[in-house]
């Protein structure tokens, strides 16, 4: 997907959130000074202050969260995809208890690149 700087970009997620299963958005960037990004719906309110131009929008039709980038900049370029994370607690036959984290990933990936504005001056 190519967008212009300043445009809004909406990305859809095909992963469902349910009890104990949370949607997570990822961005892998090839920019040298831009780190990877992980946004978990379980703890997103803490990330909102760090990323005020990124919004997670509840998609009630699909029980998911879509990602809205408001006024995109070059630092928003990268490969985006969503997934789910779930922590399960299990007990074996010896009554040992442990937890494991299960990650599942979307079937959709979107590469975002930003073009430049060109003006024709006469």
Automatic annotation (TrEMBL):
This is Ig-like domain-containing protein. Residues 1-94 form the Ig-like domain. The lineage of its organism: Eukaryota, Metazoa, Chordata, Craniata, Vertebrata. It comes from the Eukaryota. It comes from Ilyodon furcidens (goldbreast splitfin). InterPro entries: Ig-like_dom, Ig-like_dom_sf, Ig-like_fold, Ig_V-set.
């Amino acid at each position: 997907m190519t967008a212009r700087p300043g445009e809004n970009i909406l990305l859809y997620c095909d992963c469902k959130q349910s009890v104990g299963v949370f949607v997570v958005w990822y961005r892998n960037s090839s920019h040298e000074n831009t780190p990877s990004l992980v946004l978990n719906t379980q703890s997103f309110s803490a990330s909102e202050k760090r990323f005020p131009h990124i919004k997670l929008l509840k998609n009630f039709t699909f029980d998911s969260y879509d990602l809205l980038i408001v006024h995109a900049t070059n630092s928003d370029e990268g490969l985006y995809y969503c997934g789910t994370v779930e922590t399960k607690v299990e007990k074996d036959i010896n009554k040992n208890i442990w937890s494991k984290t299960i990650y599942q990933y979307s079937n959709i990936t979107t590469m975002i690149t930003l073009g430049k504005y060109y003006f024709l001056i006469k």
